[in-house]
Amino acid sequence: MATTSEPGTSARSAGAGSTAAVRRPSWGSLRRARRNRSQLATLLLATDAVCVLAVVLLLGHGDPAVVVFSVAALVVHAFAGLYRPRMDLSILDDLPLLAGAGIASVGVASIADGALGIGDVERSTLLVALAQTVLILCARAVVYVLRVRYRTAGRIAMRTLVVGCGGLGAQIVEHLQSGEQGLLPVGFIDDDPRLSAGERPLPVLGGIADLERLVTEQAADIVVIAYSNVPEMVVVDVLRSCQGLPVEIFTVPRFWQVTNTHRFVQSVRGVPLVQLRRPAFRAVTWPLKRVMDVAASALGLVVAMPVLLVCAALVRHEVGPGPLFRQERVGLDGRTFPLLKLRTMRPDASSDVRWNAQENVGPVGGWLRRLSLDELPQLWNVLRGEMSLVGPRPERPHFVEQFTLDYDDYLWRHRVPVGVTGWAQVHGLRGDTSISERARFDNHYVENWSLWLDVKILLRTVGQVLSAAGR
């Protein structure tokens, strides 16, 4: 079993365990937060759409290729990040992206012409593309000028908390108070402020442990993490506990003075701010995960039913009656549920408190484990909504309690539904392997979730099963 964490960290992790069941925000609060932060994105999309439509009506003359190009242009703009909310508004930053998007959209129209015969990409189409790009540039320049004026006038101001009451934090606050970024700093959060009361441009509202409460009390939209004396892992735990709040979190990277900036990094008067990803359950594509789970598990149960029946018969022959058994496991937000498996061992009353017991596994059980066929009944757990196809593997309550005390970050795995397979498992962390490594891989999955990551894990799982790489 893996080595336990350093002295002093277990208590912190245990304390964090009480907050690992991330409080889910209400739909009302999410809608308000999204409305506050998506105004710029909506405005830019509307501006581009009006410009595109105007050019199509004036110069398109009903050409299908022009219509295909125009629709493709809006889609490419979205993928290029031209509709993302941002602090710095510069038409010069948009210029290369808009030019590249125009070229890419002409390519899409050409492909549609060659593959589907939708219109002919002629010289007139290129003129339309040029006209749309120029018009969009001019319209966006006007929007940016008006937006900055609204910001500096205080008509657009998102309430902001700054973690770290030191020189850098004060510098950020002073820059934000100009209003150009559309953020309104309301106070510092720090356990041990470096600046004296007379040096602070804003009051210290509380310590890092109060962040979740202060975000709600101050109706904050933004949290900026600057440097402070609070240990980094303590800040990480607190930030994870705030993931259920409708707030965006930015952090100043280490060695920010030599950090390269790019269009996905915000900037406050030369200080780069990296936006932390939103929690998986706040992603636009998150509901599609459940759709994929229901469709795949229902189809999988139908297709695998003959295999399940054969496996159940073999299990009954080897271990006796009751080929299917239920075992209590810990799932999303620490809630327990009965996990279904094919029995691979003879009944043993102590198996619930023994780690990876193997003594009573027969030939059939070993074969089922190697091919992961003993996990097939969990498709029913997926269909019921107790599990997902992909997620951290669920563990028994006894071990969850033990590992939470012994290993950093273990309980934070439960921020998303547990899964039949997971990121740790496809990296060989199955059976008697390092618990700390599993927690690290599982939390990496939680922090970086996407539908494509789920698909990638499923494909790698199939490869491992076919190569009999299971337990």
TrEMBL record:
It is a multi-pass membrane protein. Pfam families: Bac_transf (PF02397), CoA_binding_3 (PF13727). GO terms for molecular function: transferase activity. Residues 1-30 are annotated as: Disordered. InterPro entries: Bact_transf, EPS_sugar_tfrase, NAD(P)-bd_dom_sf. The chain crosses the membrane at residues 40-59, 65-83, 95-118, 124-146, 294-315. Residues 8-24 have a biased composition (Low complexity). Keywords: Membrane, Transferase, Transmembrane, Transmembrane helix. Residues 289-466 form the Bacterial sugar transferase domain. It comes from the Bacteria. Its EC number is 2.7.8.-. The keyword Cell membrane does not apply. It is found in: Membrane. NCBIfam families: EPS_sugtrans. Belongs to the bacterial sugar transferase family. This is Sugar transferase.
